[in-house]
Please model this.
Amino acid sequence: MDMMRQFSLEGKVALVTGGAYGIGFAMAEALALAGAKIAFNCRSQANLDKAMADYQAKGIQAKGYICDVTQEEAVQTLVADIARDLGPVDILVNNAGIIKRIPMTEMSAEDFRQVVDIDLVGPFICAKAVIPGMIERGHGKIINICSMMSELGRETVSAYAAAKGGLKMLTRNICSEYGGANIQCNAIGPGYIATSQTAPLRERQSDGSRHPFDQFIVSKTPAARWGEPEDLMGPAVFLASDASNFVNGHILYVDGGILAYIGKQP
Ligand code: NAP
Ligand code: GCO
Model:
C-alpha cells in the first residue's frame, strides 16, 4: 500500500474562504501542494490582485473571487462559479474570520453581531452552499477554523469566543447530520499564530521591548513560541484527504500545547 496516496488531493477542488493571506493562504498552498485546485475569496479587488500575484509567485494556480461570506446569495453564486471554472467543491475550508477586542460592557450589540455574522453565520452559509453537491457526489470535506477561544475565554474577546465556541458545535452538528452522506466535517483550532489578526498583540513597545501579551503567550505555550501559518499546513492536508476518512466532528488543536498546560509555576 502506498501510504502517501492517502494524503493526495489530486483531482480535488478546494475552496478556502479568506484565502488571500494569513492562515488561509498557507492552508491553500498546502492543499495545492497535495494536488488540489484552489479557489479562494476575499472582499476587495486590491486584496484579490495581491493574492493572485502571491499565489503565482509560489507557482500555484489559484482562482480568486470577490465574495463576502455573510451574503448568502453571493456565496451560492460563488460555489456555482467555482463549479463552472474549476469543478464542484470537494473541500471547503471555512477560514474567513475577524476579531474585535473590546471589553464586553463597552461592546455594542452591532459589533457583537458582526463578529458572530462573519465567524459563525459565514461558515454556516458556506457549508450550506456546498453540502448538497457533496451529498450528490457521495463525498465531501469541511474544515472549520476554530480557535483557542473555542475552549477558553479571556478579557475583551466575548463575541469572538461566542462565535468560535459556536463554530465548534456547528462542526459537530454537520458531522452528526451529514456523516452518513460520507461528509467529514472537522475543525482546526490554531493556537496563537503570527498573522495580521494578532499583529497588535505582538507590536514592539516604544522602548523596543516585546509586547507583554507576546511574552505572556510564549510563556503559556509549551513549544515556547508563536505559531506560524505554515504550522497549519500538514493538519489541513490531513483533514482534507482520505487519510482522515474516519475522523469526523473532531477539533484538532494546533497550539504548541497551550490547552494541555496549566502555566508556569510562580
Ligand atoms: P487575517 O490575517 O486577519 O485574515 C483573515 C481573512 O479573512 C482575510 O483574508 C479576510 O479577507 C477574510 N475575511 C474576513 N471577513 C470576511 C468576510 N466577511 N468575507 C470573506 N472574507 C473575509 O486572519 P488569520 O490570522 O489568517 O485568521 C484566519 C482564521 O483563523 C480566522 O477565522 C481566525 O479567527 C482564525 N484564527 C486565527 C488565529 C491567529 O492566531 N491568527 C488563531 C486561531 C484562529 P479581507 O481581505 O476581505 O478582509
Ligand atoms: C486574542 C487572539 C486570539 C487568537 C486565536 C487564538 O485576542 O486572544 O486574537 O483569539 O487570534 O484565535 O486561538
In short: The mean pLDDT is 98. The pocket of NAP (ligand 1) is lined by residues 17-18, 20-24, 41-44, 47, 68-70, 95-98, 118, 122, 145, 147, 190, 192-193, 195-198 (CB under 6 Å). The radius of gyration is 18 Å. The first helix runs from residue 22 to 33.
